[in-house]
Write a structure and sequence with these properties.
With 152 residues, the protein is an all-alpha fold. The chain is built from seven helices and no strands. The longest helix has 27 residues.
Length: 152
C-alpha cells in the first residue's frame, strides 16, 4: 500500500539562528553538503539560500575564518611553549618553509688574467723544451746483417 507524505516547501530565510548554525558548521571545517546538513538544511536548500541571500555565504566565510584563527592561536601558543612539531607546522603551512633536501656547495674561484697568462706561457715553454729535446735525440739503429758482412 502506498502512503502519501505531506510535503510543504520551507521558506528559507537567513535568520539569526540559521546564520549561527552555518557559522558553527563552517568553523568546524565542514563544507558543501555536510555543512548544509549540520546547519539543519538540505544541500539544495543551502545552495538556494546562498543564491538568494549573500549574508549566508558571508556567515560561512566568517565561520571558516574564526575556526582558522582559533587553530592558529592554538598552534602559535604551543610553539611558544616549546612544542617543536607545532612550531614546524606553523613554519611549513603559514610561512612556506621547507626543509632542505640536499646540500648545495658553492665554490667561488677567481681567475687572475696575469696568472692565467703566466701559466699558459709556462706550458708553451715546457712544450717547446720537449720538442727541442726530441729533435736533438739521435737514435742509433743496428745495421742489417747483410750490411755488416759486407763491411767486414
Amino acid at each position: 500500500m502506498f502512503q502519501s507524505f505531506h510535503y510543504e516547501p520551507r521558506k528559507l530565510e537567513a535568520t539569526e539562528a540559521r546564520l549561527e548554525a552555518i557559522m558553527k558548521a563552517a568553523k568546524l571545517g565542514l563544507k558543501g553538503d555536510s555543512l548544509a546538513l549540520a546547519a539543519g538544511m538540505t544541500p539544495t536548500e543551502y545552495r538556494q539560500l546562498i543564491l538568494f541571500d549573500p549574508i549566508a555565504e558571508y556567515a560561512e566565510l566568517k565561520g571558516r575564518a574564526e575556526g582558522e584563527r582559533e587553530m592558529s592561536e592554538v598552534l602559535h601558543l604551543a610553539a611558544k611553549e616549546g612544542d617543536a612539531k607545532a612550531a614546524l607546522a606553523v613554519l611549513q603551512h603559514q610561512h612556506g618553509w621547507v626543509a632542505k633536501q640536499q646540500l648545495s656547495i658553492d665554490v667561488e674561484q677567481r681567475i687572475s688574467i696575469t696568472a692565467a697568462l703566466e701559466q699558459a706561457q709556462a706550458r708553451v715553454i715546457d712544450a717547446l723544451t720537449l720538442e727541442n729535446q726530441a729533435a736533438q735525440t739521435v737514435e742509433f739503429k743496428e745495421a742489417p746483417i747483410k750490411e755488416k758482412l759486407k763491411a767486414a
